[in-house]
Design goal:
Elements (H helix, E strand, L loop, with lengths): L1 H5 L2 H17 L24 E2 L10 E5 L18 E8 L5 E9 L3 H14 L3 E2 L4 E2 L2 E8 L3 E10 L2 E10 L6
Antiparallel strand pairs: 1-2, 2-3, 3-4, 4-9, 5-7, 6-7, 7-8, 8-9
Length: 175
């Protein structure tokens, strides 16, 4: 991508963080399904949490929030790395497979983030798929039982890593 090469590291990190946040806040929707957010204030200004309102046709088991871990999030499966700050999280326990996403930041190198989650996921029976990056972004995929997947992606700027974790797992695993 020529655009990414011309960005300074901080611009790339901001771009990646924005993309990660947008991806985590989105969940697969059926045609014609929309969602709205009742408040667009920044969680950084006062630490408030914002929870997205689902549309009348959205699944009642789908939820997303900004600034905190959403209620029901499978924290045993995808714990928040110690010292990290949540940017957003989402969880859909009614989809098959269940889907969960977490976006956070931490004052640590991307290698430390990937290492933390690699150890945690492998302890739960996930196996790492070959490959450690997509372009300049650290990215690691994991699979379990040939049907459950987890991806961790992280970018670093000025000593701060912003990372996203996305999981598609069996409902019984998302507890």
């Amino acid at each position: 991508m020529t655009v990414m090469r011309s960005l300074k590291p901080t611009g790339l990190a901001a771009l990646a963080a924005g993309a990660l946040l947008a991806l985590a806040a989105c969940s697969p929707a059926e045609p014609g399904v929309t969602s709205s957010s009742p408040d667009t204030s920044s969680p950084a200004s006062g630490g408030a949490s914002i929870t997205a309102s689902a549309s009348p046709t959205a699944s009642p088991g789908t939820s997303a929030t900004v600034g905190t871990i959403v209620a029901g999030f499978p924290e045993t499966l995808l714990p928040l790395m110690p010292g990290a700050t949540v940017i957003s999280s989402s969880f859909d326990k009614t989809s098959t497979p269940a889907t969960a996403a977490l976006v956070a930041s931490i004052n640590a190198p991307t290698a430390a983030v990937v290492d933390f989650y690699t150890k945690h996921l492998e302890a739960q029976g996930f196996k790492a798929v070959p490959g450690d990056a997509v372009g300049a972004v650290a990215s690691k995929d994991f699979v379990r039982n040939d049907s459950e997947t987890v991806n961790i992606a992280a970018v670093e700027a000025a000593g701060v890593s912003t990372f996203t974790i996305g999981a598609n797992v069996a409902a019984e695993s998302a507890k």
